[in-house]
Amino acid sequence: MDKRYQPIYTIGEAAKQLGVVVPFLRILEKTNLLLTARSEYGKRLYSQCDIEYIRVLLDLGLKQNKTIDEIIRSVEGLRCWEILECEAAERSNCLKYLNVNAMCWMREDVICEGNPKKCRECTVYRSLYELLPEQLSN
Predict the structure, then answer these.
(1) Domain count within the chain
(2) Distance (Å, rounded) from C-alpha 107 to C-alpha 113?
(3) Which domain holds residue 34?
(4) CA–CA distance from 74 to each of 77, 85, 114, 116 (Å)?
(5) pTM of whole model > 0.85?
(6) Residue 76: exposed, middle, or buried by beta-carbon count in 10 A (0-12, 13-18, 19+)?
(7) d(Cα 57, Cα 37) in Å, to the nearest integer?
(8) How many angstroms separate the CA atoms of 105 and 41, rounded?
(9) By three-state DSSP, how is residue 89 classified?
(10) pLDDT of 94-110, one tens digit each?
């Protein structure tokens, strides 16, 4: 596994690196903008890529005056089938393609085979911090 994706920072360490309060990180998790890894004891853990993604969210909120709802709508509007270059046959059975208003990790009925850990390995989820600024500028 690429070390940038390895969840190693506690919620307190992540908040300190980002200059935010811990409840802010919990809000991102509650709104499904961020999938938080958990330790075997249930503690939230963040990777370097999570930190970079949260910085993008902060930048969008502070510098571009985007609300959480606007950011959520932008994430929901990402077309994962284009990112993954899915064929028409694959799209015809894809709940995201058929219901564009929610990313799969934002819907419990389609979350990665019932395993949120798989979402953190998803190409689309992992590319959010690169794709989101472009999506919001359109």
Answers:
(1) 1
(2) 12
(3) 3-137
(4) 5, 20, 24, 21
(5) no
(6) middle
(7) 18
(8) 23
(9) helix
(10) 777 776 666 666 665 55
